[in-house]
Every structure is written in structure tokens, then in C-alpha cells.
Hints:
The chain has no helices and 14 strands. The chain has 189 residues and is mainly β. The chain has a single domain, classed as Regulator of chromosome condensation 1/beta-lactamase-inhibitor protein II (Methylamine Dehydrogenase, Chain H, 7 Propeller). This is Retinitis pigmentosa gtpase regulator b.
Amino acid sequence: MWRQKLKNVSKLGLGFSRRWISSEKQQQEGGGGRRKKFAALWGNGDYGRLGLGKVDSQWTPTICSALENQNLKAISCGGAHTLFLTEAGRVYATGLNDFGQLGISPEKSYTLEPLEVSGLPEEVIRVSAGYHHSSAITANGVLYMWGNNSSGQLGLGKSLILHLSKSDLSGGPWWWDAVLVTPGISRVC
Length: 189
């Protein structure tokens, strides 16, 4: 995620400097200004993981036009999918969905542009993408997990794949509020 400000990026290991315009665009509203954050992505585009509407790799930062009207708060890159969190607490996902890591219909094996994750009942304040699983923490401290659970990474105590229903880990031994979650390849901290 970028914010609007001209920066002189130091040498990139290629012997030259590059000037980038960052990701908050200035929006004028009634005499005052407001900065808008947006997603600029680059690298491997397989399965639409960049959310740019195509599978091509991008060699320079490219703005995700599908989310240009959303004020983004956070982005998290998983194995072959990406999660986006808006300031309004809505979650979007793009890329590979073979284990339900996008939180969308299992009929879609991948998506080229971000789609809103269904079934999250309240405002989300944090997202984190694992290799084939995803997580979200709500404003009330509830942790939701979905996707591949082959090694127990969803915290359900059994192996299954969750596409649309999210595991709510707020009950039982989880009597504390979730503050931070960090998924790895087949584990969660």
C-alpha cells in the first residue's frame, strides 16, 4: 500500500534511483484535503493474485483499478492469493481459491480481480493471508479463519476445508480478544 508523497527511493541494487508517486491520492472535499490509500502491486500475477484482471506478471508497481474507489487500510499476500482490508472494515480477496482461502464460492477456483469476502458479520480491523488459508480479526476481537486446514492451521481441532463458512475462534479456550494473527505455510501464530 502506498500513500501520496513524492519520494526519492534509494538505489534499488541496480545502480540507479527511481522516483515513485505513492499510494494516497489527494482528494479535495469542500476546501479540505483527504488522502486516499490505494493498492499498487507487482510481481507474479498467476491466478490473478495481483488483482489486476489478468495473470501477467508486473515488473513495476501497478494500481489495482478494481479497488480504486475503496480507501484501503491493509494488504496481505498469501501463497497465491491477496487480501485487502478497507477503512470501512470490508475484506476483499483475489487469486487462487483451491482451498477456499478467498472466502468466496468454491465454484470459483480463482479470480482475477478482488471480490468481497462473504460471511464476516462485523467490521474487520486486521487481515492476514497464509499460504492456503486466511484470517481476519474484528473490531470486537473475534478471530475468523478460512481455507486449508490440513495441518490444523484454522484452529478447529479437525481437518477440513472451509470455503464460505468462517471458523469463529472466540469461544472455548479462546476467552481473550484476538489482537494479531500471523499465518505461515501450514501454521498460525
